[in-house]
Write a structure and sequence with these properties.
The chain has 266 residues and is of the alpha/beta class. The chain has a single domain, classed as Rossmann fold, CATH 3.40.50. A seven-stranded parallel sheet has the order 3-2-1-4-5-6-9, sandwiched between helices. Strand 4, helix 4 and strand 5 form a beta-alpha-beta unit. Helix 4 runs parallel beside helix 5 and helix 8 crosses helix 9. It is globular, with a radius of gyration of 18 Å.
Length: 266
Amino acid sequence: MSKIDSSTVIWLTGASSGIGEALAYELSRTGTRLILSARRLEELERVKSHCANPDSIMCLPLDLSDNFSLAQKAKEAASFFGKIDILINNGGISQRDRAINTSMEVDRRVMEVNYFGSITLSKALLPDMIKRGGGHHVVITSAVGIISTPKRSAYSASKHALHGFYDALRAEHHDDNIKVSLICPGFIHTNISVNALMGDGSKQAKMDNAQANGMSAEECARQIARAITKDKEEVYIGGLKEVGGIYLKRFFPGIFSKVVRKMAVT
């Protein structure tokens, strides 16, 4: 089981809001040493100020779409406490539009942030984790990393890609004690749908009804923390609608196909 205590160093991306912010608060109560990352330093400092044990927390702003800077950011993160035990790839953006209306620029941006940003950080940290005898990559994907719904083609594709990469990484480095946890939240009450990109790159600027009625970010964070400590390989978090959809797709794909066409997705 993965230990989370004062000897553990965790690097958390997407830490300035939503699930990431709630997870920062949840993890800080364990006394662990945290590195918080997102684009805006002032928001990271705000989150740090509300954490337990802020003296054990460092802030490292980064942009997951700036691929060329991420290797250097990984070196900076490791320099704060001398190591990274657990990387939590949580940063990302979503999308809300039909595929036919979504520009290739939006497709590429979502993939750059959600997929390439995450795997770049993992690859940068992997050699040192292997050298030190192990490490843990925690990836916040989504229920739509397993199933797909309308108006999320780019977002769903990026999350499916994460599953493909990290399942392979887990198998390749099992003997190096590299652990991988894929965390698949459903509808969580955050602003992810407010900030989701429309087909032209503008923000949706409204919250989906399902998101508004979803699980709290705090409860989601508690379940993620438990999954990390138990080394869960894949975890589904959310309500019956989205978690049930995963199993419906798995066992009755034809029925799921009919159901998903009628879903209210915004």
